[in-house]
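User: Please predict the structure of the protein below. I'd like the answer in structure-token form so I can feed it into my own downstream comparison script.

Assistant: Understood. Taking the following sequence of 99 residues as input:
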Amino acid sequence: MNVNIQTVHFDADAKLVTYVEKKLSKLFQFHDRITKVDVYLKLDNVVHNIKDKVAEIKVHIPKYDFFVKHSSKSFEESFDEALNSVITQIKRKKERLAA
């Protein structure tokens, strides 16, 4: 699995990158043919919006792509929400293919 973590409008510290990589390693439990995962961590500078840390996850599986975007007050929270959503999408797709 090829993991690509990109940050937009800031530089991520090693602790955040390690956190993301550790969580992403759990994706193999849900699908064994994941080829690539793209993670985008962005600072969304909307003046009137409290939720300004955005996490986007793109998971590539042969013939299928999954994309999720979440925003909240912290990158960890945004990433966790997005990861849970993408796991749900992968499980649903796998159930449909098995049926």
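That's the full token string. Residues 50 and 96 are 38 Å apart (CA to CA).
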